[in-house]
């Protein structure tokens, strides 16, 4: 997308008069798409602080089923410290 934006920018600057409005319109479309992608990417980010309890239960379930902490770390976005804390909680039950 960024390459297309750069190409249309080059056409707008050095193109003839009939291509310039088309190039500017394409630039606006691409810029809008890039902005939309950025917003969607931000919305799709995983906010770990809002899922602590659910993640803890999910990790403890996997530990009960015999998975190793390193395997769980590969499946989740949680740190090894968080997983080992869950393991301690499980041992304390």
Put the structure in a nutshell.
By secondary structure, the protein is an all-alpha fold. The model has no long low-confidence stretch (mean pLDDT 87).
Q: How much is the radius of gyration in Å?
A: 24 Å
Outline the low-pLDDT stretches.
none
* Computed structural class: mainly alpha
Query: Biggest β-sheet: count, sense, barrel?
Result: none
How would you describe the overall organization of this protein?
The chain has 93 residues and is an all-alpha fold. It folds into 2 domains: 2-44; 48-92. The chain has 5 helices and no strands. The protein has helices at residues 2-14, 20-44, 52-64, 69-75, 80-92. Helix 1 runs antiparallel to helix 2 (20-44), helix 3 packs across helix 5 and helix 4 crosses helix 5. The relative contact order is 0.09. The mean pLDDT is 87.
Q: Would you spell out the secondary-structure blueprint of this structure?
A:
Layout: H1 2-14, H2 20-44, H3 52-64, H4 69-75, H5 80-92
Provide key terms for this protein.
2 domains, 93 residues, mainly alpha, single chain
